[in-house]
Amino acid sequence: MADPATYRPAPGEIPDAPGVYRFRDEHGRVVYVGKAKSLRSRLNSYFQDLAALHPRTQQMVTTAASVQWTVVGTEVEALALEYSWIKEFDPRFNVKYRDDKSYPYLAVTMADEVPRVQVMRGARRKGTRYFGPYAHAWAIRETVDLLLRVFPVRTCSAGVFKRAHQQGRPCLLGYIDKCSAPCVGRISTDDHHRLAQDFCDFMAGDTARFTRRLTAAMKEAAAELDYERAARLRDDVATLQKATERNAVVLPDGTDADVFALAGDELEAAVQVFHVRDGRIRGQRGWVVEKVEDLQDADLVEHLLQQVYGSEDGGDGGTGAVPREVLVPVLPTDVEQVQTWLSGLRGSRVQVRVPQRGDKRELAATVHRNAEHALVLHRTRRAGDLTSRSQALREIQEALDLPTAPLRIECYDVSHNQGTYQSASMVVFEDGLARKSEYRLFSVRGPEGQGARDDTAAMHEVITRRFRRYLADRAQSHDLELADVDGDDVPRSGPVDEATGRPVRFAYPPNLVVVDGGPPQVAAAAAALAELGIDDVALCGLAKRLEEVWLPGEDYPVVLQRTSEGLYLLQRVRDEAHRFAITAHRRRRSKGMTVSALDDVPGLGPARQSALLKHFGSVKRLRAASVEEVAAVRGMGRRTAEAVLAALAGPSAPPAADGPSEQHADQRTDQDAVPGAPSPVAADPAGMLEA
């Protein structure tokens, strides 16, 4: 625990200008990012008497070991930079909004040559227009199924589209007139793109234009006595009306707005937003936030708007784009700057206000009731979760006699099959929760590149490689810190990868290392740490049979109660490491079991390999064939045939068994594999593979 007075800037060093500041811990990791109209005034408020600070702010300033700041020109720039750094560094003490579920969107890939309509979840893609979010994926499919009658846009995957194009025949949707079949040229790519644009315009709320157009065409067909066409157009009008009526009108003036509401207490809050387009509710979304910062509702609203609109690419036209109005329960602290920022994203004026009367106030009350219900549901589902995690970390701290609670735990496990395809995993838990983005895989090489001799040697190698990387990154971090002081670039917190520009994630150690195993594995890990001179990382092992916790150099284990929350957490960490390691091992083993003697022939791809095996039936019969017989196979030539037979005649060619058990490729089973043989999967140069 650091004393804030040890890293407080000297008087006069902090500029009296708008900017963004970053608190970092002793390992260079960013723990908090904030913005201020006046950096001097805001930062000085953190260095007052600790007793006058909020408890969460006290914890932040005592966890931090340094503070940096960046001066910007305007408060709007500070707002944008603050969001960018929160997203990049994911600081522990910043407020984090978590979706209460992964909502599906209706997406139209307008950037493609032939746009496609589909259901999408997850991160947004540039050039794709999104509509929603919807509560259920089936609701999107029902809407699309209705609209394909009027807007027969492509919905098939890339593989189906390519196959139909090659065969010259459309899929079933093309035959039943629910696709305009651009794959076979029934419609040009330009016309199909315009059709997709019409689909997007309709989904964005411009419904009256298409209804009027179809109604006029229907009357024209009836006047020309083309009653069949008039009947089809009549059904199309009914389809559009049915699709439009699915969303009831809540604001009769055709308002485009996002309506936000907050409900919560000092510890957490639930947020709900209704996306209203053309007066109709097009989607709903919710978040739950743990208040790790001491923030008022106005600050929460500001952070919420940063997260919701900060990742938008300027308005793709769906309900995710910035609307003309943003209705909030409380105005943000810097409402003028927020409005300027949102207007820049939209490209036109955006108004942020609190609804005072009429239909909009009633709708805001409805959204608030939904937020209250969401918070009750969240508390029901996660009752005691925060308490149990805190208790688990406290019990581990007491049982292992640690100076502080192990906020970051790393666990290692080794998986192999009789010494072959040796793989190891590293899983990370922070604050008692899995941090899957920080998981890593290791390919165990051994001193001669043929794998380690046993589990203890493998564990020694893995721990050595991980913490050697930590020492290198820490040294790089110190070098970068000194270089950035006088540089012209914006200073970055912690080491930065020169190739990607992203922060290096292993420049700080865990609080606790857990290995899967008993005294031998613990001793191997302890020896690796000692050889590297690392003495500030706690270490223990969890043995599976009796769930005993072993410490380095101890003759007897630490036994936790079977109902202990600390033991439950260690078991979850250990089981996750085991799952991750065995999954990697099985993947490597599967690849190694399907190695063919034809794989090393230059210029022989999968298609020609398949043709050869189909023609001859086995590698053994192929090896016995003549050059002329091989060259006669479709797609082969004499030069390639000679290369194939030369490769199969080499001394390293594996024998192929004849008979009905042969496969379409020479396969090596676990029994045929040489113990300790390296995996065909290439190991990365750094020795660590990202999950």
TrEMBL record:
Basic and acidic residues composition-biased segments: 661-671
InterPro entries: GIY-YIG_endonuc, GIY-YIG_endonuc_sf, GIY-YIG_UvrC_Cho, Hlx-hairpin-Hlx_DNA-bd_motif, RuvA_2-like, UVR_dom, UVR_dom_sf, UvrABC_protein_C
Domain called UVR: residue spans: 208-243
Record key words, sorted: Cytoplasm, DNA damage, DNA excision, DNA repair, Excision nuclease, SOS response
Occurrences of domain UvrC family homology region profile (ranges): 259-525
Family annotation (Gene3D superfamilies): 5' to 3' exonuclease, C-terminal subdomain, GIY-YIG endonuclease, UVR domain, UvrC, RNAse H endonuclease domain
Bias type Low complexity, positions: 650-660
Biological process annotations from GO: nucleotide-excision repair; SOS response
A Pfam family this chain is assigned to: UvrC_RNaseH
GO terms under cellular component: cytoplasm; excinuclease repair complex
Keyword DNA damage recorded: yes
Location relative to the cell: Cytoplasm
Domain GIY-YIG: 16-95
GO MF assignments: DNA binding; excinuclease ABC activity
Region feature (Disordered): 650-691
Stated family: Belongs to the UvrC family.
HAMAP family in UniProt: UvrC (MF_00203)
Subunit relationships: Interacts with UvrB in an incision complex.
Record's function text: The UvrABC repair system catalyzes the recognition and processing of DNA lesions. UvrC both incises the 5' and 3' sides of the lesion. The N-terminal half is responsible for the 3' incision and the C-terminal half is responsible for the 5' incision.
UniProt name for this protein: UvrABC system protein C
Protein's organism: Cellulomonas oligotrophica
Gene: uvrC
